[in-house]
Write a structure and sequence with these properties.
Radius of gyration: 19 Å
Number of strands: 13
Order of helices and strands: EEEHEEHEHEHHEEHEEHEHHEH
Oligomer: single chain
Shape: elongated
Number of domains: 2
């Protein structure tokens, strides 16, 4: 039986073929389906909504919860999680189940590495390479220099520092943020500090399953320090489309949908061949 080393250096035996996988992370779930492993995914988290086929798979918990009875009924050969916000969950089940933990990406290149690693442990190496090639075509630095601010409603306003793939991607695309030098993955925004940074672009992502509109954002910000920024005064406010997580999702769709949307919103030409 093949043995692989996960993010924390744990040796995990993973049988091939894999017929019963539980994915507790939406990005991993999306990757498994795109690699052709969808039929083997028998359980997912309640937040696994990409691709649409994943919505039909049995739900066994959320980011941090776990229905032991349902999991035991599935009798998984492999359970997949990421580090960071799923660490406590991983710690609670690692001794009882065949758990493999993947590092939460801190850069867009980390997302590519996640796809590669999932391809290796599932025996879908060529499929992973093809998917990574398709994703990488979208990751071309833009010749722009903008001050930007991005906020996501995660039950309250949250923004991102240098340890986040979101900040790293914005920087790579030529967009600086007020928290570029903050060694955090995420943090609660200080609107006074952000106003002093005076962003030329504001990107807002609404709460998952609800979304938000530009009108809602403008109304909320007009009485805050952000209402005095160049972005607000010139109407340079972007709201992410749909009701699902957008920038907050770090699966292949981040490359295939989010980055093209950002380029299109900023009128940045896409490079079709590399």
């Amino acid at each position: 039986m093949p043995q692989f080393e996960d993010f924390r250096g744990r040796k995990v035996n993973i049988p091939h073929p894999l017929e019963r996988i539980i994915s507790l992370n939406p990005s991993i779930t999306e990757t498994l389906f795109l690699l052709g492993m969808g039929d083997s995914v028998k359980g997912v988290s309640a937040f696994c909504r990409r691709p649409s086929e994943a919505e039909k798979v049995k739900k066994i918990g959320s980011y941090s919860t776990f229905n032991k009875k349902v999991v035991d009924e599935i009798d998984p050969q492999l359970i997949l999680t990421v580090s960071g916000y799923q660490q406590n969950l991983a710690d609670s089940i690692q001794d009882e189940y065949p758990l493999f933990q993947i590092e939460l990406p801190s850069t867009p290149f980390g997302i590519l590495d996640m796809v590669n690693r999932i391809g290796i442990i599932t025996g879908k190496i060529k499929e992973a390479q093809q998917l990574m090639s398709k994703m990488a075509r979208e990751l071309q630095p833009a010749k722009i220099n903008l001050r930007g601010y991005l906020e996501i409603d995660l039950g309250g306003p949250v923004t991102f520092g240098s340890e986040s793939y979101i900040t790293s991607t914005l920087n790579y695309m030529g967009i600086s943020t007020p928290y570029d030098d903050y060694p955090n993955e995420w943090l609660t925004p200080d609107y006074t500090l952000i106003s002093e940074f005076n962003p030329q672009l504001i990107i807002m992502e609404g709460k998952m399953f609800r979304g938000t509109t530009r009108e809602e954002v403008m109304k909320r910000l007009e009485t805050t320090p952000l209402g005095k920024t160049e972005a607000f005064l010139k109407g340079k406010i972007l709201t992410t489309p749909g009701k699902l997580d957008f920038f907050a999702h770090h699966g292949p769709d981040f490359f295939l949908t989010v980055i093209p949307w950002l380029k299109g919103s900023l009128d940045i030409p896409r490079i079709k061949n590399i």
